[in-house]
Amino acid sequence: MAVFPPLLPPADKRPPSQFWSSSETFLRDVFQLQTWVALGALLQAALLLFLPLGWAVIPVGVYLASRIVNTLLIWGQLRPNPYMAGVLTQKTSAQFPGSTAPGQQPLVVIQLAGRSNHALGSAHPHFQKIVKYFEAMVHDLEADAANNRDDDDDYGYLGAKTFLANERLASNEIMVLIYFRSYEGLHRFAHAAGGTHREAWTWWNTVLMGKGSTNGHLFSIMHEVYEMPAQHWESIYINYHPTSFGAASFREDVVDPVTGAKKTQWVRPLVDASRGRLSTSKGRLATTQGEDNDKYESNPYT
Questions:
Q1: pLDDT in tens, 232-241
Q2: CA 20 to 30 Å from 272, out of 54, 160, 236, 299?
Q3: DSSP secondary structure of the chain
Q4: What is the pLDDT of residues 92-139, one digit of tens each?
């Protein structure tokens, strides 16, 4: 059978994971919306104390006007839409590079999350340290994936994606999805001597949950691990930028056709899913040939 051809060209350097900077992202989630509105009103009142009324409203007026004009220009297609950056305007699926059948290899996902129950929420220094540990673990995995050439000894890390919870008044819960080739690789990373995860584990047990701590109950942490055999997982993305497993990176050692030298390149797993076996959920689970949606009258992807 033919290999599913990748849609995105290979890269010479490993693309970064989808883990964002904690200091910038958490700033807007430290307070509730009402608090941010009150802070804005306080700032406006301060301007009124030092500037004439007409001058005091200028900064807010200019900002709002610029946002409205920018929105109208994008809406009228007079300015490029920044939200479309990287979007693939088609139906795609994520498959291991070199696959000739859907879901040809197993996949492991760990869902790692932490939450602050403190009155300061995500602004508390302990929670900021938890987030820093999350970030350091992802950086360790990135470095191992970029430098380790022995697939039998590395962690099998493929990519990571960060989320903020929204069921609370302030998003003071962070979650990271991390993708691995196998549970064995995940276990090696979690128990690596001198690794960031072991360091974070010790810090949690001795500082936050130790006998001398009075704040252990104010912070929460959890993880869930899912080990999925081959042909027991599937993915679909429609008009989406590379995200989650679709944004994973796979190392390939190839020979340069011009110089004959060996080089490393990084491949993304997204392939065309507009037709054939990958066009339906059952097809992506390798239980049909993808014809199970033929009964529907309207299918824009066939």
A1: 999 999 999 9
A2: 160
A3: -PPPPBSSPPBSSPPPPBPPPHHHHGGGGSS-HHHHHHHHHHHHHHHHHHS-HHHHTHHHHHHHHHHHHHHHHHHTTSS--GGGTT-EEEEEEE--TT-SSTT-S-EEEEEEEEEE-STTGGGSHHHHHHHHHHHHHHHHHHHHHHH---TTTS--EEEEEEEE--SSSS--EEEEEEEES-HHHHHHHHT-TT-HHHHHHHHIIIIISSTT-S-GGGEEEEEEEEEE-TTS----EEEE-S-GGGG--EEEEEE-TTT--EEEEEE--EEE-SSGGGGSHHHHTTSS-S-TTTTSS--TT-
A4: 999 999 999 999 999 999 999 998 888 888 888 888 898 889 999 999
